[in-house]
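INFO worker-7 received task bundle
INFO bundle size: 2
INFO processing item 0
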Amino acid sequence: MRTKKSLIVVSVAAVLAIVTGVVVWLLPGDEPSAARLVDPDSDAVTQTEQARTVDGARTIEMALTAAPATVEVGGRTVDTWAFNGAVPAPTIRATAGDVLRARVVNDLPEELTIHWHGIALRNDMDGVPDLTQDSIAPGEEFVYEFTLPDPGTYFYHPHTGTQLDRGLYGALIVDERDAAAPSADIPLLLDDWIDGTGQTPDEVLEGLTSMEGMDDGSMPGMDHGSMGGMDMSEPDPSGATSPLGTDISDVSYPLYVINGRAAEAPEVHPVSAGEQVRLRLINAASSVPFRVAFGGGEMTVVATDGFPVEPVATDTVLIGMGERYDVLVTVPGDGAFPLVAAVEGGSDQAMTVLQAGAGALPAADVRPVQLDGRLLTYDDLQATADVALPSEEVDRNYEMTLTGNMMSYDWGIDAPQEDGVTMPVREGERVRLTFVNDTSMWHPMHLHGHTFQLVSDEGIGPRKDTVNVAPGDSVTVEFEADNPGQWLLHCHNTYHAEAGMQTTVSYLQ
């Protein structure tokens, strides 16, 4: 039986400031409100973790060292940062109820934390610097230890500065307890890549946010028509029909990869003709959404963001940064069949291949007809009965506005406050949250430590932790406040978050 988890949103026990990419607590002078917060080291956090304990559960030991590395990415040799010298990092595989004990060594020249994206874990293990833990200093180490309560597709990545836009990420797969091992189950991490190709992510952020040095008509880092990585090209005509609008990505990338491999030299997965394969699609990119299709036929979506949905067939899926989709495909026969991740609104793409028997690999620019077929929408998705939230009265109803623009590059979240606390909640409450996008760009909004359910006129929506909010649009979600602590809520566009589009979720005692 799957444990039901829910989502919870924002709260600021203090004002959250973004200073040179570092989250800082600035106490608002409201001591009574601050004293009412459930801190990461509180008894409530410990008690909630103890309640997740499963008899007979294993402890999964993992050692991760973050360090500079020279790796092959997309057919190029690049200098980047990686876990254990590999891109992507090692896949962690466990069973629901297992305890993950990850010893993380920081051999980078700057501080580090790791966020376990999508996991309803104990608050003091969530990996947000200065909110849930102190950063891991260079040369130091930290042991993350927590229960993995829910089966599903998740991933891990840094939560410090622009580090996600390097090679520091890996899949975290949690299987059902007492379930048969899948015969063909492939995690696929989609990524946009710039590190080691002439710019670092920090230089890209500087180019996006700085107007200094423009006396010669250029920004720092401008290269071949792009400003510090800023995408200044005309949108591809296909973007005109995108549900994300026409202003889709603000960074121009030279490479797009799946599991660290570009379309020119794709990873090849041996399969059998007629075999059903589970593909776990994870968008680990920092700025680019992908439209994904299988060249061998339709896909059946069976889960999103780790939680199951009623199976639905589609030709193509649009996946924003931080989102995950589990899809089933059937290998139609002998041959080599492409899984293509096309850059939404652009002409580039990444590819991986399912190979059954002999056959030449598809061309790097192959475009399956499925990419132009039925596009999955959130309205097509319905949570299965075992994970759908029960119908309940809403205790808190908050509306938050997403703000900012490309020219000032000053992104933010305007949310209501009560006594110095932004959108406070208490354990056991049902909370309704509406994201209102008052900008000309789309934003993939991610809540830590919880999973919410989308609310629409279509009935029971999917359970998710990351949701795309189109420009000028609004999205409403509900969650149960069942995981006490202080939780980050932010745009999963790395550069938007670093420029200010983040706030906190705070439980009150």
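INFO item 0 finished
INFO processing item 1
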Amino acid sequence: MFTGLIEGTGTLLRVDHTGADARMVIKANYDTGPIILGESIAVDGACLTVTSFEGNVFSVDVSRESLNRTTLGKKKVGQRLNLERALRLGDRLGGHMVSGHVDAIGKLRERTRDGKSWRLTFQIPRELDKYVIEKGSIAINGISLTVNACAEGTFHVNIIPHTARETTIDQLQTGDEVNIETDLMGKYVEKMLQAWKPGAKPPREGKAIDMEFLAKHGFS
């Protein structure tokens, strides 16, 4: 689990393709502290496992699923990547709960100046619309951001100077693709509420979610 607060950036040193999968070698451009074999690191928002390391250089294996569902398969040697090590119990949660499981690839449609900030408008698959709400949270290339406004298939966010300096988002140009992860909470709520639909199979305890059920479990 991650927070979407990028710790620093890394540089892609090498990509080794092994059939449908790949191994990426990345150099962190900041002091990561001791890296642990097998730990999870979010690379541009995708949760990956460290398979080897030496100093601030580490390798991660990228499955075919991850290559197909994220932008990682299109990364070139020399490109910068957003990095975040996994959340530890007791850490401050300054962003929002980010799983590192990318929902889909979005595309930057427009970038305009807004005072000292940039306003970025992204296009996303329409099936993600229901998970994106005004003033809700969203992760773009692993960065926790607040949705300023949203419409059918689009939303926009503001990028303050600090975020632009400390991440790769300032490098994005119109038409560039990004990894999108919507708020995890919305997906679970949606699945729980499926029991309200006519003909839906009730929960295992044999009772659908209704007002009586919610009151019994502390919701009023």
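INFO item 1 finished
INFO post-check item 1: Helices lie at 64-69, 161-166, 184-192, 211-216.
INFO post-check item 1: The mean pLDDT is 92.
INFO worker-7 idle
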